[in-house]
């Protein structure tokens, strides 16, 4: 299966998939991405169902528990456990290895490379913060070659060599090419083409020296800029460098902000001034409802007219309001009086109509952010949208709350007609557009 989106370090809007051979390693590697602001979860037995359950996660860490397994079983376990991630989505893959080189490092790396998805395996097990480093292909723990450290006496997976290339070659018959810090630096600054030449001539496995966190950062930057599908292989140190790169790239892509539907059933002069300021400072599609059409039986035509205006402009902020010019209000009241309607009944009829139009707009555009001004109008809209109430989340200005409409996925700011400052509507729109999720709002709620 080809994976074009893994080129240049993968499509960073997709997930990071980490394959670890034990639980503590899975956690200490995954948490590096959490520190960078990403969401991560450890999975024990991944399945297709797991992927859908964790669709909001940025990083999924799979614990294969294969560190002390026989080599053939470890190979099969890794091959099988990644299958759910090889179907429809294109992800960035990270093979977590022990920073003291214990376990089936070469075998499990071979299992992933045999999938045929990767052009290169970038192997950097150094973890400077824990005093694990690599120099000229030799791996050290607190300055001592790892085969002379405590790892040599591990009861299950003793480490018998400090040469990363030798260890991998013994398990796989593949001898990685070692890249010194100098070679990586020269390639990164385009003063050497050694790495590009090695890739061009078929070298796929690279052991990278690293003694500092900056060395790991340079490794990530070098291979991210190359047109290669990379399998990242390392411990929490490389994960930290990679997570910082991923987080930085994602933050540079400004997320699309949700459109806001602003609905007014208020004839307040204060609200009119706030809308005038909004128009001056912010672009939005204005949709004006003629109240005379609503009262004289042409409500269906008025609703259709609104929908026609929105058909080609569904991703914009929308200002929906009734024509409240003095002469229109006077004609509206006169018409209602002639029909035997009280002022309250006239207002209620208009509020109900705005409620139905708001529901039409929500269903057509999928808008999830509402600004509602005018108490009768706000209540009518909530009713038409099937809201069982409003869960109050926070107060964005004195007397102007933000809430979530119960039984829906909608957020709403409500405001009495005569409330607020000149920029209150604009401020409310900005708050609504920047909501990242329900949890964030709940964390800011006033209890």
UniProtKB/TrEMBL annotation:
The keyword Nucleotide-binding applies. Pfam families: NBD_C, SBD_N. This is Four-carbon acid sugar kinase family protein. InterPro entries: 4-carb_acid_sugar_kinase_N, 4-carb_acid_sugar_kinase_N_sf, NBD_C, NBD_C_sf. It comes from Bacillus xiamenensis. Belongs to the four-carbon acid sugar kinase family. One of its GO terms (molecular function) is kinase activity. Keywords: ATP-binding, Carbohydrate metabolism, Kinase, Nucleotide-binding, Transferase. Residues 261-424 form the Four-carbon acid sugar kinase nucleotide binding domain. It comes from the Bacteria.
């Amino acid at each position: 299966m080809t994976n074009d989106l893994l080129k240049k370090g993968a499509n960073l809007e997709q997930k990071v998939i980490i394959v670890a051979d034990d639980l503590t390693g899975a956690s200490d590697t995954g948490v590096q991405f959490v520190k960078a602001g990403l969401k991560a979860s450890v999975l024990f037995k991944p399945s297709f169902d797991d992927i859908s359950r964790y669709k909001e996660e940025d990083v999924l860490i799979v614990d294969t528990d294969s560190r002390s397994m026989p080599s053939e079983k470890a190979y099969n376990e890794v091959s099988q456990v990644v299958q759910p991630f090889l179907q429809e989505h294109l992800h960035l893959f990270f093979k977590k290895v022990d920073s003291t080189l214990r376990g089936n490092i070469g075998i499990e790396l071979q299992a992933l490379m045999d999938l045929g998805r990767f052009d290169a395996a970038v192997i950097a097990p150094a973890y400077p913060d824990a005093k694990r480093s690599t120099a000229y292909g030799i791996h050290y723990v607190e300055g001592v070659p790892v085969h002379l450290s405590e790892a040599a006496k591990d009861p299950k997976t003793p480490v018998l060599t400090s040469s990363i290339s030798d260890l991998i070659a013994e398990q796989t018959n593949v001898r990685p090419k070692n890249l010194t810090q100098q070679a990586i630096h020269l390639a990164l600054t385009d003063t050497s083409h050694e790495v590009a030449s090695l890739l061009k001539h078929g070298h796929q496995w690279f052991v990278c020296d690293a003694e500092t966190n900056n060395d790991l950062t340079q490794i990530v930057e070098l291979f991210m800029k190359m047109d290669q599908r990379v399998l990242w292989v390392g411990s929490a140190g490389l994960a930290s460098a990679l997570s910082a790169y991923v987080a930085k790239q994602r933050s540079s892509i400004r997320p699309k902000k949700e459109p806001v539907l602003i609905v007014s059933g208020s004839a307040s002069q204060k609200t009119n001034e706030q809308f005038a300021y909004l128009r001056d400072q912010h672009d939005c599609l204005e949709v004006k409802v003629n109240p005379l059409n609503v009262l004289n039986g042409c409500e269906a035509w008025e609703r259709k007219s609104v929908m026609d205006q929105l058909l080609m402009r569904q991703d914009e902020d929308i200002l929906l309001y009734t024509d409240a010019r003095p002469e229109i209000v006077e004609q509206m009241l006169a018409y209602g009086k002639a029909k035997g309607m009280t002022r309250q009944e006239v207002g209620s009829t208009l509020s109900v109509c705005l409620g139905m139009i708001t529901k039409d707009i929500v269903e057509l555009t999928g808008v999830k952010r509402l600004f509602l001004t005018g108490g009768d109008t706000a209540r009518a809209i909530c009713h038409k949208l099937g809201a069982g109430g409003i869960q109050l989340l926070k107060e964005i200005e004195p007397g102007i709350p933000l809430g979530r409409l119960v039984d829906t996925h909608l957020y709403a700011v409500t405001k009495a007609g005569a409330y607020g400052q000149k920029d209150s509507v604009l401020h409310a729109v900005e708050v609504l557009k920047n909501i990242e999720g329900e949890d964030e709002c709940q964390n800011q709620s006033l209890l």
